[in-house]
Amino acid sequence: MAEKKPAKKSAAKKSTAKTAPTKKATAAKGTTPAKKAGAKRASTTSTPTAVATAAERAGGERARRRSTPLLSGSEEGRAQARRTPARRTPARRTPARRAPARPTAPTLRVVEGEGGGDAAPRRRERARASSAGAAALQGAVRSVEAESPSETPTSTTPSSGTTLAPGVAELLSVALSAGQVASRSIGSAMSQAAGEDLERRLGDVLAFLRRRVQGDYVVDDFGFDEDFTIHTAFPLLRPLKDRWFRVEVRGIENIPAEGGALVVSNHSGTVAIDSVITQLAIYDEHPQRRFLRMLGADLVFQMPLVGDFARKTGATLATNPDAERLMSNGELVGVWPEGFKGVGKPFRERYKLQRFGRGGFVSAAMRSEVPIIPCSVVGAEEVYPMIGNLKTLARLLGAPYAPVTPTFPLLGPLGLIPLPSKWIIEFSPPVDTASLGKDAAEDPALVFDLTDQVRETIQQTLYSVLMTRRSVFF
Amino acid sequence: MARTVLITGVSRHLGGAFARRLSAEEDVTRIIGVDVVPPRHGIGRAEFVRADIRSPLIARIVSDNEVDTVVHMGVIATPAASGGRVSQKEINVIGTMQLLAACQKAESLQRLVVKSTSAVYGSSPKDPAMFKEEFSARRLPSGGWGRDSVEVEGYVRGFARRRPDVGITMLRFANVIGPRIRTAMTDYFSLPLIPLPLGYDGRLQFVHEDDVGEALTTALLQDAVGTVNIAGDGIITATQAANLAGRPFLSIPHQGSGTIGGLLQRSGLVDSSPDQITLLTFGRGVDTTKMRAELGFEPRYTTREAFESFAARLTHRRFFLGGRKQPSWLAAHAAERAIAAIDLTGKKD
């Protein structure tokens, strides 16, 4: 490693920085001017001051940070770092507020006390890292200048045959990293008012954007994009689930910690949001944070945007090959056997289960020998009470139904706002299929029996939950 | 076992690469390469015979040389490579018919290896996530190469009935990609601005060009296993592919995609077909369990690696983020690491 060479020099500087907490600010200034300037130049594209302040802050912070591998495994380090609340920064940057900022100063000392035992080796490592960072930055500055001829037309073009295009991508990538730093400093400034994890969240968002722009994410065989689901789909749905519908989950312990299982649920609500809310509820409540892999009708995947969103959040076509493939991979699979009959039923038939398809889900579970978990969703029926169905229009559009609710289409787009009903999702104890053996799937009578049993369980649970419900909205 | 292998379509990129790869196999005593035009690249120790597989002359080549293995790679994917759709179809369908007719008469023939494509599964919203070999297309490919391949496979099945003594392996390759090959897919992702269907993000699977030769060689040396899917592991989506190629993309509503596709084709920028647009819309995945279990073939490149090896070759990357080897990228990376270093120091635990 070339970075190791200048380590000793700055190690000396660092050790002075460590000695007295009061000198931190000055020490920081002493070590970072090069970096500060470098950072300024590096982020020519955006927020130079933010990076500079971050750099300035960094010099001081590094002095009391615990040793973290800075350059190697930076991704891990970053993730680790993100989790830690950054409380001390604002206190240092605004010395006037230092006295009233109660939590900052004490924690500082505690950390130092803890780290006192093996401070020396840590210091060394820190110093090395910092100088490496500085070196890298300087290199970066040079290269950024070189690759942006539009800004510095005098810079020499490298003699290597490869074209050094303006490098919009590279600049964008750097800008995103810089933005991450900037967001942290902004975040830390705001953290006093808006809570500490804002900073972390802003950083996360920028890291996410960078991954997306680079195509640096993994999609599984079914098109499930975990990165997108966790960072885009779930955060969008979570307020809806927690604040609007105030979802209460019961019997989450009935979902196994691992291995394949089939969640069978009732379907309702005119727009099939009960499936995505159930998925999010399981992810949020389950200790293993399991993803529910939903099985959807082909119509879903035919629709633009909807189909794409469904695939990315883990849905796939409700066919036996896909269902069995998922379950044999040990995934938690969700199925809504009522299909469009359930979603598009009139309001007066609420909480009355429709026919459960042909029982294909039961035979699939039998073949894969996974348990069936009946799931009853109460509250989704009242989200968009469907009081009419424009069948002619539906036929014209090729849709299974064209709903009329008290607010839609009367109030236009406003009618798309769901009613804030109170939701209760209850998972019943699993129905075992493994003991029946694989051949049981070939016995239609047994399949029908089990289908009825699951349907009956869900219907009874629906009634019992409805009995306990105080009102539709509370 | 002394073997004489006949390769059709040897003057094409993959055919030549396969001939070179097969030249390294000592079990193979003689390699005969057949095509209508002389090869512009090396074909190893293969002997080139200029012949049209659409003519009955091919029968004489097969019988006179005591050919015991035929590798049929003469199915052409792009219309432009053969001088238009009509001649493409003729080469693909009539050529296969003539070749199989010749094979049927050849007493010496023991093995037939056919290079087919996963396009035979079509692409539709009703598709299962991963096609196994025994699944059939939910919606047959509407035209072009996919349709031709369906017909070619039909003739091969007919041949299998009439010559049960010949061991047949038919390899259904996912879209072939790599730094050297030129296909409709590589043309498409080389566009400075990639049009993609709005609201859809098809799942794509690729196989590296080097793996094609390896798979065909494995198929030739192994026992016949029937139809096998060949694809790199994993999936990338169309937008992800555009990002990996470092190209900005433009989402076009589905209604307009046909027009755009037509325009691109007429302008000669991309040798695309309606099938390709459906593929980018709904995507397709093939199951490769049989490839490992029965053929015993392990691709060296995953789908993503195969695509990245193609993307690294792209020039004029105005928006390039995929390859980490460019000096400009290395510089950007250094800057990023430096910023990350500062960034890390910003928090403490």
Automatic annotation (TrEMBL), chain A:
InterPro entries: Plipid/glycerol_acylTrfase. One of its GO terms (molecular function) is acyltransferase activity. Transmembrane segments: none annotated. SMART domains: PlsC. Residues 261-380 form the Phospholipid/glycerol acyltransferase domain. The keyword Methyltransferase does not apply. Residues 17-57, 129-163 have a biased composition (Low complexity). Keywords: Acyltransferase, Transferase. This is 1-acyl-sn-glycerol-3-phosphate acyltransferase. It comes from Marihabitans asiaticum.
TrEMBL record, chain B:
This is UDP-glucose 4-epimerase. It comes from the Bacteria. Residues 5-231 form the NAD-dependent epimerase/dehydratase domain. The lineage of its organism: Bacteria, Bacillati, Actinomycetota, Actinomycetes, Micrococcales. Gene3D superfamilies: NAD(P)-binding Rossmann-like Domain (3.40.50.720). PANTHER family: BIFUNCTIONAL POLYMYXIN RESISTANCE PROTEIN ARNA, NAD-DEPENDENT EPIMERASE_DEHYDRATASE. It comes from Marihabitans asiaticum. Pfam families: Epimerase.
